[in-house]
Task: inverse folding
């Protein structure tokens, strides 16, 4: 099985501060859910920005689907930013057409079905939508692509527990078959059962990675307990 | 607990699977390298740029046409009383504003979209699209130039129509601007055309580069000082360029050869500025992008 993500000696510096400090890790294209875990400031968003081409590494290499990050990788990566960026002047339907135009893997029928399921009004302008509805729209647009890799930056931050469950179930039900989902979060207890693979980041370093079951058996504790132990001094 | 116990090399390193990318063969050159500018992608980018630029342009064109007609009618009234005189004065003012606004509004909208789509939250969407930075910049600038050019042409047509329709606007007659005996050499026409084109293109490239410059500086006053400094330097170089070969400094008693040398120095200077600005835009968007 090939790696959908590969980072080699990946370093990103902001001034004199290391956001990522020569990390090596890879995510296999097994079609599972990968948890990118760590507290605020651990380098999760920096890593995601490097994977999506919003930042350039200071040194080291990053590959997605076997290629350096660029136009080709963007064609197979579906990215949900924590800003839930959308074209605010468009209607919901125009936003769907925009995605359908630019992403050849966009499934219009799936988007329309999810729009009905999530109760998003297609005639409304994006700027008039509530924060929650905007989040739903951004999520449905992201998941309507038949991408190889979904990168979701804090998709459940700032929402209530019921909505979290709903969002996670929506992700699981709608992601493309055999696609990998990389999801960053610091809310572990609620979603650790969904992870097939986890990567722990601490101060720009990968301190732990592997399959959750193997880690649980080895350490004799849940991922959430392990997380609290690793980050207890932070 | 030794947290580094799991920090192992990748256990799934078997790279036997080839990933496929949903890009057509026409996107690649003969060497199999992705083209920096692809017609297919540019067409889509232009579609959305023009969809945003055309409504304000149409509004300006409509208003300019309406005010031009009104101005022609009012300026041709046989006599004026207090009311018609006041209305004519107001329409004259409106007409001047409309003349200025028609090319300026598309320019402002285009540069506003540049900032919004590249450096604000929308940037997360813009740069998720499988398009190169060259394609993004090209589409933004060329669409902005096209809309502004249409505005400029409309302004010139309106000015000619109103000038010819109004009987008392003959004060340019006999001045050098409308001197019928004045002829321009082909070389001068080429020089003037090139300088005008570079000025026009330069507005967008400088505008884009200044937007990149603004976001690239952590302290905004550094950007202001740098911008003013660069502008002053440009002015000094430009004055030296156009003054080259004149008998006296600046524009007096210039010999024709000196004029041409000055013109070509300007052409080279503007071309260099455009290239520098585009290089700076690409460098910022490719390597220095940092959306919050």
Result:
């Amino acid at each position: 099985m090939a790696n959908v993500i590969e980072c080699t000696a990946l370093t990103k510096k902001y001034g004199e501060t290391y956001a990522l400090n020569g990390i090596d890790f890879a995510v296999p294209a097994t079609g599972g859910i990968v948890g990118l875990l760590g507290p605020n400031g651990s380098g999760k968003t920096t890593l995601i920005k490097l994977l999506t081409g919003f930042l350039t590494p200071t040194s080291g290499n990053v590959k997605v689907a076997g290629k350096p990050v660029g136009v080709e990788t963007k064609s197979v990566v579906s990215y949900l930013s924590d800003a839930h960026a959308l074209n605010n002047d468009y209607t919901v339907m125009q936003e769907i057409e925009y995605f359908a135009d630019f992403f050849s893997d966009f499934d219009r029928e799936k988007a329309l079905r999810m729009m009905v399921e999530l109760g998003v009004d297609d005639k409304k302008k994006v700027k008039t939508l509530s924060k929650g509805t905007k989040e739903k729209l951004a999520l449905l647009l992201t998941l309507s692509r038949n991408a190889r890799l979904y990168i979701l930056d804090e998709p459940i931050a700032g929402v209530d527990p019921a909505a979290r469950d709903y969002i996670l179930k929506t992700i699981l039900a709608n992601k493309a078959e055999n696609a990998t989902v990389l999801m960053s979060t610091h809310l572990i207890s609620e979603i650790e059962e969904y992870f097939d693979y986890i990567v722990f980041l601490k101060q720009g370093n990968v301190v732990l990675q592997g399959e959750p079951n193997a880690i649980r058996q080895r350490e004799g504790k849940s991922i959430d307990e392990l997380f609290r132990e690793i980050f207890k001094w932070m | 607990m030794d947290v580094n116990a799991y920090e192992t090399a990748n256990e799934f390193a078997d790279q036997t699977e080839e990933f496929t990318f949903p890009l057509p063969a026409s996107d690649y050159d003969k060497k199999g390298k992705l083209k920096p500018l692809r017609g297919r992608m540019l067409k889509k980018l232009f579609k959305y740029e023009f969809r945003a630029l055309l409504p304000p342009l149409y509004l300006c064109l409509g208003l300019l046409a309406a005010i031009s007609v009104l101005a022609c009618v009012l300026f041709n009234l046989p006599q004026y009383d207090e009311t018609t005189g006041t209305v004519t004065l107001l329409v004259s003012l409106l007409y001047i504003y409309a003349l200025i606004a028609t090319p300026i509004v598309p320019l402002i909208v285009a540069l506003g979209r540049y900032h919004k789509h590249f450096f604000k939250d929308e940037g997360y969407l813009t740069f998720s699209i499988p398009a190169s930075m060259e394609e993004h910049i090209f589409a933004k600038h060329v669409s902005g130039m096209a809309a502004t050019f249409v505005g400029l042409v409309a302004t010139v047509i309106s000015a000619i129509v109103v000038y010819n329709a109004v009987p008392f606007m003959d004060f340019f007659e006999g001045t050098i601007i409308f001197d019928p005996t004045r002829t321009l050499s082909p070389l001068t026409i080429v020089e003037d055309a090139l300088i005008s084109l570079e000025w026009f293109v330069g507005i967008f490239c400088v505008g884009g580069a200044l937007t990149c410059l603004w976001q690239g500086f952590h302290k905004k006053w550094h950007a202001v000082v740098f911008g003013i400094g660069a502008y002053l330097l440009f002015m000094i170089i430009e004055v030296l360029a156009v003054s080259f070969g004149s008998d006296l400094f600046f524009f007096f008693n210039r010999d024709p050869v000196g004029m041409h040398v000055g013109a070509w120095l300007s052409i080279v200077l503007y071309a260099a500025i455009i290239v520098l600005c585009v290089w700076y835009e690409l460098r910022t968007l490719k390597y220095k992008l940092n959306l919050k």
The mean pLDDT of chain A is 88.
